[in-house]
């Protein structure tokens, strides 16, 4: 197996600091006796390794109490183990901006408590995916006679299926990235150094061009800097391509959350490229450890933005995850479904807020979604619309409207307009005699006469309006 495969957790060295061991034991007892929150206050004043306080260890943008709180809460969850995995650290600190300084501070926090940080196997390439390991062997590896026999029967039976599989974009992508060899730690450092040199050369060339002193550089020196820039770009591409399978291994864990695998991989690749640009090899961390943080952040944020038909803000998604985790934990502890009040107390919010957050987790469903095994009906068939008109009534109304139009068509233009305005046949608003009179520029008495004459015509049995008696018997 390559050097990127995770190592098993190692035991704690014998030369550990007694003060750190006492700190860890004392904090564990505080956690068990008084809960996580009380222990955090005590730990925020403890000293780190070599007399370093929590304020010195906490990176910019993160307070010492937050750092110590996350570390102690994680130690409480892992129990008596003398190691934690990078995956557990990522899960405990999901919302922090990734940086090598932050990773270094977290490592120092755990070292101060005599806890070893190890690579998580799931963060690296797992051996379960033959495509990612590039172990798809050609048929020519088998004896020729067996190849001919198997090929003849298989091509006849599965020709259609194999043809579709050959055009599967996921399998094609996995084959492509599986051809790129994994990197050793030394190779990662070398590529990072080339990348750093390329960025420095690019900055120098940009400064010369922007300052208008391009003539200061000799042609040979300018060509040399351009070559360093090109070499840095090549190193960046190599570092990205060698870690594309890491993106796939992480993205597969998020399938089923509203985005397909290829979309998750694409977002993860964006996070990988950001990690390459911000990686600091001088801190001594493996690139995969740092890149995993950026990849996870890019994927989770894309799911929050694109994974739902109705977008939910990132902070609400985090609140939903917190409530869901509390619900699962209480279910395991109580051996029953926890109540709303119990969940609210556990996550320290109001019960009404819990109900609101749990309601946001409901996924929308299409009215055209099939119901039953036969798929002969849809969800919309079983939902009643209180405002909908029954089909028989709708048909009668449509016929009534047509009969009214036919009856009005036999009237003169002024008679038709007077009837329409008086009875509101267009907009539903009935006008008074004065309003209609002002519209036509005549007196209200004249409008009354026109109305009476028109209604008399409509009531005549020989006209088309006679059909309206079926709807309005009083006419």
TrEMBL record:
InterPro entries: RNA_pol_sigma-70_dom, RNA_pol_sigma70, RNA_pol_sigma70_r1_2, RNA_pol_sigma70_r2, RNA_pol_sigma70_r3, RNA_pol_sigma70_r4, RNA_pol_sigma_r2, RNA_pol_sigma_r3/r4-like
Keyword DNA-binding attached: yes
Comp. bias regions, Low complexity: 1-18
GO molecular-function terms, A-Z: DNA binding; sigma factor activity
Key words, A-Z: DNA-binding, Sigma factor, Transcription, Transcription regulation
Entry's Gene Ontology BP terms: DNA-templated transcription initiation
Region (Disordered): 1-65, 135-162
Gene3D superfamilies: 1.20.120.1810, RNA Polymerase Primary Sigma Factor, Winged helix-like DNA-binding domain superfamily/Winged helix DNA-binding domain
Residues covered by the RNA polymerase sigma-70 domain: 263-276, 432-458
A Pfam family: Sigma70_r1_2
Family: Belongs to the sigma-70 factor family.
Protein known as: Unannotated protein
Originating organism: freshwater metagenome
Source lineage: unclassified sequences, metagenomes, ecological metagenomes
């Amino acid at each position: 197996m390559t050097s990127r495969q995770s190592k098993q957790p190692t035991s704690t060295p014998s030369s550990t600091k007694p003060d750190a061991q006492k700190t860890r034991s004392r904090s564990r007892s505080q956690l068990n006796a008084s809960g996580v929150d009380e222990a955090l206050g005590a730990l925020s004043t403890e000293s780190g390794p070599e007399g370093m306080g929590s304020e010195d260890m906490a990176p910019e943008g993160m307070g010492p109490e937050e750092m110590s709180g996350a570390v102690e809460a994680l130690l409480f969850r892992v129990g008596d183990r003398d190691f934690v995995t990078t995956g557990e650290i990522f899960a405990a600190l999901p919302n922090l901006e990734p940086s090598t300084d932050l990773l270094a501070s977290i490592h120092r926090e755990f070292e101060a408590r005599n806890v070893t940080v190890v690579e998580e196997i799931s963060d690296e390439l797992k051996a379960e995916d033959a495509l990612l390991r590039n172990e798809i062997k050609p048929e020519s590896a088998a004896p020729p006679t067996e190849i001919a026999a198997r090929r003849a029967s298989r091509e006849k039976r599965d020709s259609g299926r194999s043809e579709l599989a050959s055009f599967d974009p996921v399998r094609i992508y996995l084959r492509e990235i599986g051809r790129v060899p994994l990197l050793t730690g030394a190779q990662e450092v070398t590529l990072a150094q080339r990348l750093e040199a390329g960025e420095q050369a690019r900055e120098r060339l940009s400064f010369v061009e922007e300052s208008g002193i391009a003539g200061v550089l000799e042609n040979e020196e300018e060509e040399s800097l351009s070559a360093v820039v090109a070499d840095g770009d090549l190193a960046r591409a190599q570092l990205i391509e060698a870690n594309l399978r890491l993106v796939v291994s992480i993205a597969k864990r998020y399938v089923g959350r509203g985005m397909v695998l290829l979309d998750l991989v694409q977002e993860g690749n964006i996070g990988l490229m950001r990690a390459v640009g911000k990686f600091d090899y001088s801190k001594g961390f493996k690139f995969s450890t740092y890149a995993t943080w950026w990849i996870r952040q890019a994927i989770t944020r894309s799911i929050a933005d694109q994974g739902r038909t109705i977008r939910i803000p990132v902070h609400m998604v985090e609140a939903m995850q917190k409530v869901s985790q509390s619900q699962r934990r209480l279910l395991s502890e109580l051996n029953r479904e926890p109540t709303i009040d119990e969940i609210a107390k556990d996550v320290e919010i109001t019960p009404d807020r819990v109900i609101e957050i749990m309601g946001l987790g409901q996924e929308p469903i299409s009215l055209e979604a099939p119901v039953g095994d036969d798929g002969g009906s849809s969800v919309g068939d079983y939902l009643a619309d209180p405002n909908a008109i029954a089909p028989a009534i709708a048909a009668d109304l449509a016929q009534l409207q047509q009969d009214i139009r036919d009856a009005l068509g036999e009237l003169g233009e002024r008679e038709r307009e007077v009837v329409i305005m008086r009875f509101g046949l267009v907009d539903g608003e009935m006008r008074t005699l004065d309003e209609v009179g002002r519209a036509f520029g005549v007196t209200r008495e004249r409008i009354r006469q026109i109305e009476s004459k028109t209604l008399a015509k409509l009531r005549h049995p020989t006209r088309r309006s006679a059909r309206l008696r079926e709807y309005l018997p009083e006419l």
